[in-house]
């Protein structure tokens, strides 16, 4: 997908550049290209399990905070 930014009337170069930059950011193209720039190894089963346990800990803490928030 090509991104175009044409000048509107008496628009300055800086404003044109800002508009183009915002269009590029909205597409998410740079983020995608940066991710593809380096090889990312898939997490193994041990890492997945540790992350799941950590996530459960955080959820339990947040649930406790929510329950005791009136104190």
Report the strand count.
0
Instruction: Give the N-to-C terminal Cα separation.
Output: 54 Å
Radius of gyration: 23 Å
Q: What structural class do helix, strand and pairing data support? A: mainly alpha
User: Proportion of β residues?
Assistant: under 5%
Globular, elongated, flat, extended or rod-shaped: what is the shape? elongated
Oligomeric composition of the shown chains: single chain
Low-confidence stretches: none
Question: What is the average of the pLDDT values?
Answer: 90
Helix amount:
55-70%
The profile of the biggest β sheet is: none
Number of helices: 3
N-to-C SSE string, H for helix and E for strand: HHH
Number of domains: 2
Structural description of this entry:
This protein has 71 residues and is mainly α. It has 2 domains: 11-40; 43-71. The protein has helices at residues 13-27, 29-37, 45-67. The relative contact order is 0.07. The model has no long low-confidence stretch (mean pLDDT 90).
